[in-house]
Write a structure and sequence with these properties.
Elements (H helix, E strand, L loop, with lengths): L1 E6 L3 H12 L4 E5 L23 H13 L3 E5 L4 E5 L2 E5 L4 E9 L3 E3 L15 E2 L2 H4 L7 E5 L3 H10 L5 E5 L9 H9 L3 E4 L4 E6 L3 E10 L2 E5 L2 E4 L3 E3 L2 H5 L23 E3 L11 H20 L7 H5 L2
Parallel strand pairs: 1-2, 1-6, 2-3, 6-17, 8-15, 9-10, 9-15, 10-11
Antiparallel strand pairs: 4-5, 5-6, 7-16, 12-13, 13-14
Helix pairs in contact: 1-2, 1-7, 4-5
Length: 313
Amino acid sequence: MYDLAIIGSGVAGYAAAMYASRLGLTCVVIGEVEGGKITLTDEVANYPGFIQLTGKDLADKLKAHAKSYPVDMEAGRVEDLFKAQEYFYLVTSAKTFLSKSVLVATGMKERDLDVPGQNEFKNKGISYCALCDGPLFRDKAVAVVGGSDSAAKEALLLARYCRKVYMIYRGEKIRPEPINGVRIEKEPKIEVVTKTNVTAIIGDQTVKAVRLDKPYNGHDVLDVQGVFVAIGGIPVSELAKKVGVATNAKGEIIIDRSSRTNVAGVLAAGDVTDTEFKQAITAVAEGVHAAYQAYRYVNEREFVFTCQQSESV
């Protein structure tokens, strides 16, 4: 029996676990990927207190801080979440966890392009992680699809390996942070293609080109050997919905300023929420808020657990 069970082993989950333990709550973190999505980020230069470090380094530091307290950490995927009486049950393939409160910090999964060739060439030239796969495209031409700061960071990292990087974005202009925008402008290997969509990914055994919805330099087919998709993500909110948590039209969990959802005892933090500015620092802050609200929730109620109740679920 835990006071707080955290679904998701990213920075929000680790921060929440550390604070929850400091507040005297028994706590478990259950996650599939240690450190979460930030471990795929090559450079973090906007987290207060650290001028520059890798995403994995940041996640490792937060995990180590959490583990300096009596926090349980379990590797695995929570396959089901339900509530019986006042308790939450979290079911993995290996065991079932019982908790008085739950923090959903499950993040987002990558959004696909949904064009012809997407499924055929996944892992055959289509990637979602420049840090993971960039070296495989050394001296080749690649396309980064997207115009966000994340897409800009992908393009900048790929420029270290590739002879040419096209940033293809449907909008009027790309939207990186100003410092990364300047870096894009100064990088001769990067060419920005705006007001353009990729309509198909072309190849045989691997990616050979992308088809565009309008000509670029006189051609609607762009020769590339790799496509890096950076068009945002889909919030992993299915488990939260099972216990009645409200989401917005995007599927993001709706939270208040204290990381509370509409369901008592269920908190949420990080990229899975409807927070507009999704950053590691905001995810950590939401995790901390969630830990405090879990502390209040647990200590303001009287929980009574019986064997009969256990046998009924």
